[in-house]
Amino acid sequence: MSAREPLVLIVSGPSGSGKSTLVEKILELAGTMLSISCTTREPRKTESDGKWYNFVSEAEFKAMVERGEFLEYAQVFGKNWYGTPKRWLGEARAAGKDLVLEIDVQGAHQVKAKLPGAVSMFVLPPSRADLEQRIRRRGQDSEDEIKRRLERAGKEMLSYSSYDFAIINDDVERAGKEAQAIALGSRCRVTRNEDRIREILKSFGG
């Protein structure tokens, strides 16, 4: 029997909405693994290569694009590139685990087009004021950057209806449980369990 295709869980939403925290909650579930994205941006002081991102040069990134190594990729704010390497699908398949992707709206649409069975979650802040407060609290962005992020967030949130689930992140504990519930429930889809169901039916003479 060939290895079972991994369940792909997409977590998407505006910058500052709390995606990473919810991804961490999903990764607490047994049988999950993180897809590590590639980016051309510089690492922040708190970041190390290979944890959430692999940091590569623009030349390296473009070479990966030309070799068809990305499941999805996009340029953000007209400067930095981000992409999800296809190899994580193979690694998840080989390990028998579900694959968690933390990607932006552009990337989520690309993945859903290629993998219609992927389950997408959109994370929303409770308000614009709350999102601005979160971004400012990080202390990583200039005023111009904050303005761009908020404008982009407003546009991205118009895409909510193209997702399978929406999580309003006004209570991180509750939102984390919701993300886990979506992941666990998606594992129970009939389409993901048909082979096993058929085996059970055979034992009943069906």
Characteristic key phrases:
5-stranded parallel sheet, 4-stranded mixed sheet, single chain, globular, Rossmann fold, 45% helix, 206 residues, alpha/beta, 8 helices
Molecular structure report:
It is a single chain. This protein is an alpha/beta fold. The chain has a domain at 8-35 and 96-203: 3-Layer(aba) Sandwich (Rossmann fold), CATH 3.40.50. It has helices spanning 19-27, 58-66, 87-95, 105-114, 128-138, 143-156, 172-187, 190-203; strands at 8-12, 32-34, 37-39, 53-55, 70-76, 80-85, 98-102, 119-124, 165-168. The strands form two sheets. Strands 2-7-1-8-9 form a five-stranded parallel β-sheet, sandwiched between helices. It has a four-stranded mixed β-sheet with strand order 4-3-6-5. The mean pLDDT is 92.
Q: What's the overall geometry?
A: globular
Strand content: 15-25%
The second-level CATH architecture of the domain at 8-35 and 96-203 is 3-Layer(aba) Sandwich
Q: For the record, what CATH class of the domain at 8-35 and 96-203 applies?
A: Alpha Beta
Query: If you consult CATH, what is the topology of the domain at 8-35 and 96-203?
Result: Rossmann fold
Please mark out the parts with pLDDT under 50 across 5 or more consecutive residues, or reply none: none
The strands making up the biggest β-sheet line up spatially as 2-7-1-8-9
Task: Let me know the CATH homologous superfamily of the domain at 8-35 and 96-203.
Answer: P-loop containing nucleotide triphosphate hydrolases
Secondary-structure element string:
EHEEEHEEHEHEHHEHH
Task: Estimate the helix proportion, in percent.
Answer: 40-55%
Cα distance spanning the termini: 21 Å
**Number of helical regions:** 8
- Beta strands, count: 9
| C-alpha Rg (nearest Å) | 18 Å
Mean pLDDT: 92
From the helix content, strand content and strand pairing, which structural class follows? alpha/beta
Largest sheet: 5 strands, parallel
